[in-house]
Amino acid sequence: MSIEVQIHDFNTSQFDHLAALFGSYFQPDDKLLTKSYTDWLYAKNPFGPARMVAAVEAGRWIGFMALIPVHLVRCNARVVAYYVVNVLVHPEYQGKHIFGRMITAAKKLVTAENAVLMGHPNDMALLSWQRARMHFHDVLKPSLVVPSLRAKGVQAHAVDDLKQLQTVLPALTAQALAAEKWQLVVSEDYVNWRYLNHPTNTYRIQFVEVNATPVGFLVSRKVRPGINLLVDQFMLERYAADALGCLPWLTISFRPKSSMREFSGSLWPLPVKKQIPFFCTYYQQPFAASDVMNLGLSASDF
After folding, report:
1. Which of 94, 204, 222, 267 could form a disulfide with 143 if both were Cys (CB 3.0 to 4.6 A apart)?
2. Spans of all domains in the chain
């Protein structure tokens, strides 16, 4: 029986195929097997529906990866990027090069669309992505946000209404359009979908002001009792370091070394081996590591 690799936009009729495949690995109560999470991640993204890469044999899905669209912007240029998530091959088909064929299909898609392919592969998938010649950049390493008193005039407020961000989003958009480094396009719709309406994760969004002037917002979440993860920060650059003092104590940030140097004194590198590989592949005009050093975990912490 031949195996065909297909790519198409997500629609809700595909849920049974997903559930059958993911049920070969996960317990029935896993979020990946719930319609609410599936619909949120693949259908409701304000940047558009996910692209589904499926390896199919006789109508049965035996391999899968999802490509979640986001938009990146810099220097008045904008590009569509697809973040790779939820890659899986049925146990009966391991070793049959299904994963490699799906990667090849994803590469053809982004080449045809002049788009970017990005991801943080785990240890099991890393070698396959390296063989596929993804453009890997500096790994993200953990650091502790230095506990400190807030700088004078810096205030943070919990966001429970998107109207609180309306005063700062235009300035953040203008900064991103003029920046030399790629940044994630952020809007009220994106914040609402990505953080406030997440079906399983609870995020802490802190709206930051300096001397009553809005300067941005921070996004973090609790990952263990007493330990938090900085998912992303959308800040006017001159206030980025001071804003870190608003985060909860024992907050971990994952950044490449080059980005950590910009926050010298605000971040303490942790003496652990944990690191997150990162590829960001744009075939038409490959990025330098410095171009993508400030992309946070916003597009990955799904």
Report:
1. 267
2. 3-131, 141-276
**Structure token digits, residue 37:** 């999470």
Percent of the chain with pLDDT over 90: 87
- % pLDDT > 70, the chain: 100
CA distance linking residue 118 with residue 264, whole number of Å: 27
Q: What share of the chain is helix, strand, coil (3-state, %, to 5)?
A: 30, 35, 35
Cα Rg of the chain, angstroms: 20
149 pLDDT tier (thresholds 50, 70, 90): confident
CATH architecture of 141-276: 3-Layer(aba) Sandwich (3.40)
Superfamily of domain 3-131 in the CATH hierarchy: Gcn5-related N-acetyltransferase (GNAT) (3.40.630.30)
- Same topology for domains 3-131 and 141-276, yes or no? yes
Q: CB neighbours of 151 closer than 8 A, spacing ≥ 6?
A: 210, 242, 245
Helix axes 15-22, 35-43, angle to 10 degrees: 120
CB 55 within 8 A of CB 89: yes
Q: What is the mean pLDDT of residues 71-90?
A: 95
Phi, psi of 81 (to 5 degrees): -125, 140
Beta strand 227-235 pairing with 116-119: unpaired
**202 exposure class (CB count in 10 Å sphere: 0-12, 13-18, 19+):** exposed
Phi, psi values for residue 30, rounded to 5°? -65, 145
Whole-model pTM over 0.90: yes
Q: Of 48, 57, 137, whose CA–CA distance to 101 is shortest?
A: 57
- Name beta bridge partners: 51: 9, 67
Q: What is the mean pLDDT of residues 263-278?
A: 90
d(CA 79, CA 74): 9
**Bridge-based pairing state of the strands 251-255 and 227-235:** parallel
Instruction: Say whether pLDDT at 81 is over 70.
Output: yes
